[in-house]
Amino acid sequence: MKPLALLTATLLVLVAQFARAAVVTTQSGSIRGVSADARGDVTVYRGIPYAAPPTGALRWREPQAPLPWTGVRDASAPVPGCIQTVAPNRLPWTDEFMHHGAVSEDCLYLNVWTPARAAADRLPVLVFIHGGSFTEGSVSVPLYDGTALARRGLVVVTINYRLGALGFLAHPALVAESPHHASGNYGLMDQVAALRWLRANVAAFGGDSNRVTIAGQSAGAMSVHLLTVSPQAKGFFQRAIIESGPGALAALGIADGKAATVPLEEAQQTGVNFARSLGATTAAQLRALPAARLLARPAGETAVRFGPVVDGWFLPADADTAYAAHTQNDVPLLIGMMADEASASPGYDAARAQATRGQGLRALDALLAARAKTSTHAAYAYYFEHAVPWPQHPQFGAFHSGELPYVFDDLAGLKRPWTAMDRTLAVAVSFLLGCLCSQWQAFGQLAAEVACLPARIPEVHGVRGAPRGARPVTGTVTAAASFTAPCVTAEIQRASPPGSATSHGKAPANTGPGDDRSPSPMPAMDCRQRSR
Fold it and tell me: Could you list the active site residues?
């Protein structure tokens, strides 16, 4: 056979093998994914239905099992977000942080990125729940690309869930027809439905259903916190990560778990007033309304904000009460905040920055102290003070959501003048995240090496700082990390596996802000190598 013909035949065989490998069979049917990028080592499956469309008679009901299909379903294209107002940029949140595209009530889909070559790989699973004030966001937000995280040895999942009125409307008519005598929290029910689907199907993607970490940011962080106290979520996850949620958002009115929810009676009254403004008083009339009407703001009235409800079933109590009663789903926890959570607020200046940081740190300290009274699992706290480089808008600092490019190790997805320090930090943060999902014990060991523990936490009245030494930030926290690029750059050398490209020598010299030289080559750091 001629060389060219042999090469062509070989490529055809490889293509055929890849096509077969990208087909996964779930309980509802078979799906075909695509290579996440040109490297071909991660496969992405977009738009997998984890529940039936919550439309018509299923609007404001618990999510139902997905409808089965025949043949092989294509899973290569983005799917619509749940019903929301597609907003323009709102600084500091540029296009990359926002959902732009179609929206639909038929939106209960999830995305999966997997590096697994076979179902037997049994890799840890990371489920990311997006933020957006429970009114916006989706799996199609550009920054939520799980490719790089999957290369850390994780199966990465992002999920859509119902938002706004469709996700969190409480109303007496809906309570009356509910078998649980509850209403609201449909978006949280969606999140549990996704976790239930993953428990039944993630093994087909090479994931381990007994090593599931749920992580969320902002509204997603509040969701994660609430899932740790919901009886309906019990057993579906083994670890939790709360990024900029209760405590961290004290300056914005969410100082504790109780502030993240409203009582059912209050939520129902809000729902009655909202429905009446639309001319609806019954469940049937509400379901007959076009989805677009539910987004409309009545003339002269402020927009109604919908969110989680203490409904007596999905959430029998607020999170603080549940933890005090030791009825929580007790799992290891990573929780933290950005240094400038409130920088999008008017009048944010140096004095307010110092004050709001103190509020957040004190609230986190109180939340963790309360948790420690009943929890038997370790908690880690972080304080992320490294700002995305943004010469045009330095006033936003380490803003709310600013950690996401580093968490997903996806600096290319955000157009900024990244430096070598930023690239190093993204590697370190995503590496630690992979370790947490893989082996909690190894995470603790590596956090101490990679993130300079104990951390340099600002000295704030009521919160003990952590100068160099063995003492953690608070007696209720196992350890605390301060994610600052210089610290991580210096320490990541010691965290590299023996024999790797960075396991010898010193940190790159002069890699401070503004220096865009490439850092020392980062190894494909695998937490499993460190935990042996």
Answer: 218, 341, 400
Question: Which of these, 439, 445, 459, lies nearest to 495 by C-alpha position?
Answer: 445
Instruction: Please report whether residue 288 resides in a domain.
Output: yes
Tokens 């937000």 correspond to what residue? 141
Backbone angles phi, psi at 155, to 5 degrees: -90, 115
In a domain, 433, yes or no: no
| Bridge pairing between strands 43-49 and 109-114 | antiparallel
Phi-psi region of 462 (alpha: psi -120 to 50; beta: other; left: phi over 0): left
CATH of the domain at 137: 3.40.50.1820
CA 131 to chain CA centroid, nearest Å: 7
User: CB-based burial of residue 287 (10 Å sphere; 0-12 exposed, 13-18 middle, 19+ buried)?
Assistant: middle
DSSP 93: B
Beta-bridge mates of residue 282: none
What's the domain count of the chain?
1
Burial label for 243, CB within 10 Å (0-12, 13-18, 19+), is: buried
Instruction: Give tens-digit pLDDT for 108-146.
Output: 999 999 999 988 999 999 999 999 999 999 898 889 999
Answer whether 49's CB lies under 8 Å from 109's CB. yes
DSSP 140: T
The rounded distance, in Å, linking the Cα atoms of 427 and 432 is 9
Nearest to 413, CA basis, from 96, 129, 112: 96
β-sheet bridge partners, residue 479:
380
Q: List, for the chain, all residue ranges whose pLDDT scores fall below the cut of 50.
A: 6-20, 449-532
Contact of 204 with 178, CB cutoff 8 Å: no
Q: Is residue 292 part of a domain?
A: yes
* Structural domain range at position 236: 41-65+73-331
Alpha helices in 178-237 (DSSP H): 186-201, 219-227
Q: What pLDDT shows up at residue 1?
A: 53
Cis peptide before 92 (omega within 30 of 0): yes
Cβ-based burial of 16 (10 A; exposed 0-12, middle 13-18, buried ≥19):
exposed
| The residue type at 241 | I
Is the CB of residue 488 less than 8 Å from the CB of residue 450? Answer: yes
Phi, psi of 290, rounded to the nearest 5 degrees: -60, 145
Q: Which amino acid is at 112?
A: V
Instruction: Give the pLDDT confidence score for residue 113 in this predicted structure.
Output: 97
Contacts 24+ apart (CB under 8 A), 433-436: 433/126, 433/149, 433/152, 433/215, 433/241, 433/407, 434/124, 434/149, 434/152, 434/153, 434/154, 434/525, 434/526, 434/527, 435/527, 435/530, 435/531, 436/213, 436/239, 436/241, 436/334
Nearest to 247 by CA among 385, 358, 332, 353: 358
In-domain check, residue 211: yes
**DSSP SS3 for 407:** helix
Q: Which residue shows structure tokens 């738009």?
A: 47
Q: For residue 217, how many other CB atoms are within 10 A of its CB?
A: 27
pTM: predicted TM-score of the whole model, two decimal places: 0.84
